[in-house]
Specification:
Domain Response regulatory: 20-136
Enzyme class: transferase
Shape: elongated
Number of domains: 3
CATH topology of the largest domain: Alpha-Beta Plaits
Low-confidence stretches: 5-13, 151-162
Helix content: 40-55%
Catalytic activity: 2 GTP = 3',3'-c-di-GMP + 2 diphosphate
Largest sheet: 6 strands, mixed
EC number: 2.7.7.65
Radius of gyration: 31 Å
Strand content: 15-25%
Protein name: diguanylate cyclase
Length: 486
């Protein structure tokens, strides 16, 4: 028995923490009761009994979520929330207001102050934990995006409180269209967002190709003790969350007060908010506007992250791919499975006498020449071929599936095209001639991880050697490596 008890204790101690939550409340009983519930759900819990202590602890410990009670000895809870939102290190921490009574006015005040959500006493444990898990999932996902994009350019929940205020798109989805239309009428009278109503279970956009809503409001009908209504609600939620058009949208589920237990399941399935029963119009507009602001903040962060990833792969001057993208592309080509073994060509192209152009016309003119040549190279290869700028005036061209004769014809054509085009530069009466030299080497796919690296190094050395021979032959010419890479 002692051994079993020991093993059980070890198992409990080894259970991973679900996140670090700070409880702020002057009433010790409130803190203790809440800590017991959260600790049982494997959260790491810290406590503060005043706003001043909470600010110090939040700045030092950076909790994953903060629960702020209504009773504080030194400041209003709204003041604490505002101070947390104003702090550089605490602005994006999710904040939940713990209210002593459940009234629309109290919820609106807390949300206006900057709280991400509100829970009321007595606490319905299952719904509370579902709300906290949902906020933590969003917080951790956003933090990952912030780390990838750089913290100085990321927008988070703190910024979303007021930094994004463009009108949004709201789509109401209801099995009973009369319910959706009635809510649409109410919302249109109180907010400046575009509000549409559609039947739940069908298309989630008004027409194919139409932009998806920033926020979907899923109206779930039901009565107490009706298992069919609950199953229908969960099925609708699952379908909406899986819809490709809604993958970046926020979802607010609305359930009748009699179906309150359904809220926890909806939150765990991915609803960003669940409204239980009817709420006043000010709370409706505030909750939906807050969801739109968060959606816009995350969209901007996603765009900046995408731009950052693109910038890491694209040469900013010419718009071609850069070495960072080209080398993994070449490696993947070499590692193609044996059943897809095929030849491919690698070319290294270099502008002839480029230093003379910079010295005579200036670096701005040199940049124009590089862009001009990049455009001609990109237009002169097949779809699926890769052209990258890998140095000052050096370009890499990769032709998957090309044989030696095709590679030679392509390289000759590129040389002729560039030599015949010329480029107009300031101060010159006619086009300035520009030429390139190209070295070509042939490779074959079907390598392993162990052999791909040396093979690619050899292949690039062969292409470089062929380029040097082309330069030695008088430039504006093509040379093929005599030794194909293994």
């Amino acid at each position: 028995m002692d051994s079993q008890r020991s093993q059980k204790g070890k198992s409990e101690r080894a259970w991973p923490m679900s996140g670090k939550i700070m409880i702020v409340d002057a009433v010790a009983t409130n803190r203790i009761v809440l800590k017991v519930k959260l600790s049982a759900a494997h959260f790491e819990v810290t406590q503060a009994s005043s706003g001043t202590d909470a600010l110090q602890m939040a700045r030092a410990g950076r909790p994953d979520l903060i629960i702020v009670g209504a009773a504080l000895p030194d400041m209003e809870s709204a003041g604490l929330i505002a101070a947390l939102r104003a702090g550089a290190g605490t602005a994006v921490i999710p904040i939940v207001a713990l209210l002593p009574d459940d009234t629309s006015q109290a919820r609106v005040r807390a949300l206006h102050a900057g709280a991400d959500d509100v829970i009321t006493q007595p606490v319905e444990e299952r719904i509370m934990l579902a709300r906290l898990r949902g906020l933590l999932r969003q917080h951790h996902a956003l933090q990952d995006m912030r780390l990838n994009a750089g913290t100085d350019c990321a927008a988070g929940f703190g910024e979303a409180q007021g930094g994004f205020d463009r009108p949004g798109r709201i789509t109401l989805l209801g099995l009973q269209m009369s319910d959706a239309m009635a809510l649409r009428t109410r919302l249109r009278s109180a907010c400046r967002h575009q509000v549409t109503a559609l039947r739940a279970g069908g298309p989630v956009t008004s027409a194919p190709g139409a932009p998806a809503a920033d926020v979907f409001v899923l109206l779930i009908p039901g009565t107490a003790g009706d298992p069919a209504a609950g199953a229908t609600g969960l099925e609708l939620m699952a379908e909406l969350r899986a819809a490709p058009e809604a993958r970046h949208s926020r979802i607010v589920a609305v359930v009748p007060a009699a179906c309150q237990p359904l809220a926890a399941s909806l939150l765990d399935m991915g609803a960003n908010d669940v409204i239980v029963g009817d709420v006043d119009l000010p709370e409706w507009t505030l909750r939906l506007t807050r969801q739109i602001q968060r959606k816009q903040a995350i969209d901007q962060l996603r765009t900046r992250l995408h731009d950052g990833l693109r910038a890491a792969m694209i040469d900013p001057l010419t718009g071609l791919y850069n070495r960072r993208f080209a080398m993994p592309f070449l490696r993947d080509l070499a590692l193609a499975p044996d059943d897809r073994t095929r030849d491919f060509a690698v070319m290294v192209a270099d502008l002839d006498h480029f230093k003379r152009i910079n010295d005579r016309f200036g670096h701005a003119a040199g940049d124009r020449v590089l862009c001009h040549v990049a455009d001609l190279l990109g237009a002169g290869v097949r779809e699926g071929d890769l052209v990258a700028r890998i140095g000052g005036e050096e370009f890499l061209i990769i032709m998957p599936g090309a044989c030696g004769d095709e590679a030679r014809r392509t390289a000759d054509r590129l040389c002729r095209r560039i030599a015949g085009a010329g480029i107009m530069l300031k101060g010159e009466c006619g086009p300035v001639p520009v030429t390139i030299s190209i070295g070509v080497a042939m490779g074959r796919s079907g390598h392993t991880e162990q052999t791909a690296g040396p093979s690619l190094d050899t292949l690039l050395e062969q292409a470089d050697g062929a380029l040097y021979r082309a330069k030695a032959r008088g430039r504006n010419t093509v040379t093929i490596s005599a030794r194909p890479a293994a």
